[in-house]
Design brief:
Length: about 400
């Protein structure tokens, strides 16, 4: 049996993951990652990491496994929080949870576990890992990242930036279980986390007032809200539109619409956002359809079917493309059908990946709502996640 370090988050999923590994006969060590120590932007002044750390300690005691706290707050701020600020400042919308997995849980935490003599790390993610032969080779094995068995809890999307090296050192013990079964196991063992609600908000931070959080480094500044009509000629896509034209974000100017209000900073908003505009008197709800952080202008449109919310393609430059399965990587000029999602919990969408010299394009069978620069697109073949990339603003 192996020595395995479990990331005990103080929740029911990692608690049951630790139990299952111990039941299998492994030498299990529980570590709580302390990645945040600033409660000033938390809703209701909650400081969840203290409660979570205490719950993780109680679980370790209940299971009879060693426990320690690993303080990664400085590295977390550098790698995740500063990244968030930079992205929002540039008018992009980041996904810190995906970066947290790549940079913290399966990098810094993994390295700390290896220093303790562990063979692998385990977490409470609803995902699975399997082995397969590389394409074109019967002798070389590769690791497959598979969706969790519970379709309502599948978290493979959040792991879409992991490498083969990271997968080789990782275990997801509850990936074959449904959430109800995880709860049942926790109740049968009398674990203190059995009825604990799932965490919400930013990875390891909790529920935050995002505008307050961003205002730590991004200044509020008044700017115009411009409404663009659905019938604008901007949305007349040429019949012979190229792939790059289909993937290009709509570019608006103040002359494209009517000034209807003011906002506190274009960098605080994201494509598809509805809340926080504070403009009334419209027949249908207003949605953000474009942001210009240079001119500090916010462009909005009425209704969920506004054409400014929909695109048929997206682009990822070469430096932002990651193949979980490198043996699937496309060569320039190749294209291949995959199923794609551009946000967590989105049903998989039929699409084609097209490799061009400058990067990868994804062309969707049906137009997609609120394709947002800075977010991640992940592509699957069946239940296997093949690769991912950061959506580029073009």
């Amino acid at each position: 049996m192996a020595r395995i370090v479990v990331g005990l988050s103080g929740g029911v999923d990692s608690s049951v993951a630790a139990h299952l590994l111990k039941e299998q006969g492994h030498e299990v060590i529980g570590i709580f990652m302390r990645n945040w120590n600033d409660s000033s932007v938390l809703i209701n002044n909650e400081c969840p990491w203290i409660d979570d750390s205490n719950d993780a300690l109680l679980i370790a005691e209940q299971l009879g496994i060693p426990f320690q706290v690993l303080d990664l707050s400085e590295e977390y701020r550098e790698r995740i929080v500063d990244y968030m600020f930079r992205e929002y400042e540039q008018g992009r919308t980041p996904n810190p949870d995906i970066l947290c997995n790549r940079e913290v849980k399966f990098d810094l935490f993994l390295k700390a576990a290896l220093e303790l003599g562990a063979e692998k790390v385990a977490t409470g993610h609803y995902a699975r890992i399997a082995k397969a032969n590389e394409i074109g080779s019967e002798n070389v094995q590769t690791h497959k990242l598979l969706a969790g068995k519970d379709p309502n809890k599948d978290q493979s999307y959040f792991l879409c930036q992991l490498s083969q090296e990271q997968l080789a050192r990782s275990i997801f013990p509850i990936g074959e279980l449904e959430k109800s079964e995880v709860r049942r196991i926790a109740r049968s063992l009398g674990l203190v986390t059995a009825e604990k609600k799932d965490s919400q908000g930013l990875c390891f931070i909790g529920k935050v007032r995002l505008p307050d959080f961003l205002k730590e480094q991004l200044s509020a500044k008044k700017g115009a809200i411009v409404e663009v009509a659905a019938g604008s000629s901007l949305y007349n896509e040429p019949e012979e539109a190229t792939l790059s034209q289909k993937a290009r974000s709509f570019v608006y100017t103040r002359e494209d619409g009517a000034h209807i209000g003011m906002h506190n900073g274009a960098h605080f908003f994201t494509i598809g956002q509805r809340k926080g505009l504070n403009v009334g008197g419209r027949e249908e709800p207003l949605f953000v359809i474009g942001t210009d952080v240079q001119q500090n202008v916010l462009y909005v449109g009425q209704g969920e079917e506004h054409p400014g919310l929909y695109r048929s393609a997206l682009f990822m430059d070469n430096e932002q493309v990651h193949w979980v399965r490198p043996d699937f990587e496309l060569a320039v000029g190749e294209e291949r059908a995959f199923q794609v999602r551009i946000r967590y919990r989105q049903p998989l969408q039929n699409a084609w990946l097209i490799c061009e010299p400058e990067g990868l394009y994804i062309r969707f069978e049906e137009k997609q709502k609120a394709i947002t620069a800075g977010q991640f697109a992940a592509w699957y073949e069946g239940s296997e996640l093949i690769g991912s990339g950061t959506i580029h603003h073009t």
